[in-house]
Amino acid sequence: MKTLLRTLLYLALIVWLGAEIFFPVVAAITFGNLAGDTHSAGSIVGSLLRILHGMGLVSGIVALALLALAPAWNIYKPRKVLAPMILIVLMLGLTAFSQYVIIPAMERDRVAAGGAIDLAEAQNPAVADFNKLHNRSEHVEMVILLLGIASVALVAHAESAHV
Predict the structure, then answer these.
(1) What whole-number distance in Å separates Cα of residue 10 and Cα of residue 49?
(2) C-alpha–C-alpha distance, residues 19 and 1, integer Å
(3) pLDDT of residue 159
(4) DSSP symbols for 2-46
(5) What dihedral angle (degrees, nearest 10) is formed by the CA atoms of 108, 112, 115, 121?
(6) Is pLDDT above 60 for 163?
(7) Which contiguous run of DSSP H or E holds residue 130?
(8) Dist CA 139 CA 83 (whole Å)
(9) Phi-psi map region of 55: left, alpha, beta (phi>0 left; psi -120 to 50 alpha)
(10) Domain ranges across the chain
């Protein structure tokens, strides 16, 4: 049973981090292949980002639940799971912030700019705000990835501390 629960915990973290690592590659290829149509590329990448966030929220909740239950099942020591749990809560919060605050604001700016950011005038305030939000989105995803790597390291440390 312990092996199954550890496997599910690591699988939840792997799915989330793997998607976070792979997403920029997919985005770059999409924009590269659709260089002449950045609006379509942006729509595809936006849809994929929503999927990434859904995967992250589910994976994060699963990982958090397993870490919360692990001490009761004598898988990890209680104090050793606290730090990775805090990091996962932060990751969940940042993912929700990106999904429910940043992306809708970017969509409002896109519509306000006339539907296609790349066709709007550069001095349009909606374009400037969209670009600012896009930059913020990239930073948020990078922080999620770094927190995820740190949480994996802390879970691995909890694993070694339990033996």
Answers:
(1) 22
(2) 27
(3) 80
(4) HHHHHHHHHHHHHHHHHHHHHHHHHHHHHHHHTTT-HHHHHHHHH
(5) -130
(6) no
(7) helix 125-162
(8) 22
(9) alpha
(10) 2-162
DSSP state of 73: T
* Lookup: tokens for 45: 């990448």
In 3D, which of 78, 80, 79, 63 has the Cα closest to residue 158? Answer: 80
Return the residue matching tokens 């805090």.
Answer: 86
Which of 54, 55, 65 is closest to 89 using CA atoms? Answer: 65
pLDDT tens for residues 63-113? Answer: 999 999 999 888 888 899 999 999 999 999 999 999 999 999 999 988 887
CA distance 57 to 130: 24
Residues 27, 48 contacting (CB under 8 angstroms)? yes
- Render pLDDT for 36-59 as a digit per residue (tens, 0 to 9): 777 788 888 889 999 999 999 999
Site of tokens 């996962």 = 88
> Terminal CA-to-CA distance of the chain, rounded, Å?
16
Instruction: Provide the pLDDT for residue 162.
Output: 54
Q: How far is CA 50 from CA 23, 46, 53, 114, in A?
A: 11, 6, 5, 22
